[in-house]
Amino acid sequence: MRKPFVAGNWKMYKTVAEARQLVSELVPGLQAVEGVEKVICPPFTSLLAVASLLEGTNIGLGAQNMHWEASGAYTGEISPPMIAELCRYVILGHSERRQFFGETDDSVNVKLQSALAHGLTPIVCVGETLNEFENNQTVEVISRQIHQDFHGIQGLFDLENNPPFVVAYEPIWAIGTGKPSTADGAATIVSEVIRPALKDMFGDSVSRAVRVLYGGSVKASNAAEFFSEVEIDGALVGGASLNVADFTQIAQSAAR
Prior knowledge:
CATH topology: TIM Barrel
Distance between the termini: 14 Å
Strand order of the largest sheet: 7-6-5-4-3-2-1-8
Strand content: 5-15%
CATH class: Alpha Beta
Number of domains: 1
Number of strands: 8
Oligomer: single chain
């Protein structure tokens, strides 16, 4: 059985003081939700403060991005060891990173290999644009992303017994638009595109063991619909993760 997984991506929201306040309010409700892996991904500036508040809880901490080098003259970047000192998780290849900061499947791939080498659990995002969706290119785009993003990690890790990564399917046309994919549509992409691509690379047992999340306008009001699909193992939540009641309810829906 794949353990449900719910991660909150705070994006570029919340000062350190605001992050402390939000986490203080989130912890009691999230702590009470059992049987779900729960992760909070605040901005870099708040990682240390949030880490101290999550210490001793059953809630994980993640970063929103990282550089692939362990150190170096990369002004403004954050290295895997810097993240691993505080976090267990890291989001890689989010569509906003690809759209606004020029990230490619190649850069996601080197980041993925580096994250794994430093003991982090990557949450790797894939998804198609509105133009690609309307031109029936979804299968081609996502299959390519999986094959290129995960290239070269075969044989390096114990993939079969403990896949060290999570995949998040985020149709770009649904992110922040308030127009999510249908639950059935998202589940179809997972079962007919993402898992077959993973099977092609790593074998059937790995493809069935990897947790695949849905992301894109996930709300408290629609989360249960997505989680009712057996192929969807949880959610990467954006705006709703900044609301205590909404994010807690989404985690509760995953538990059910």
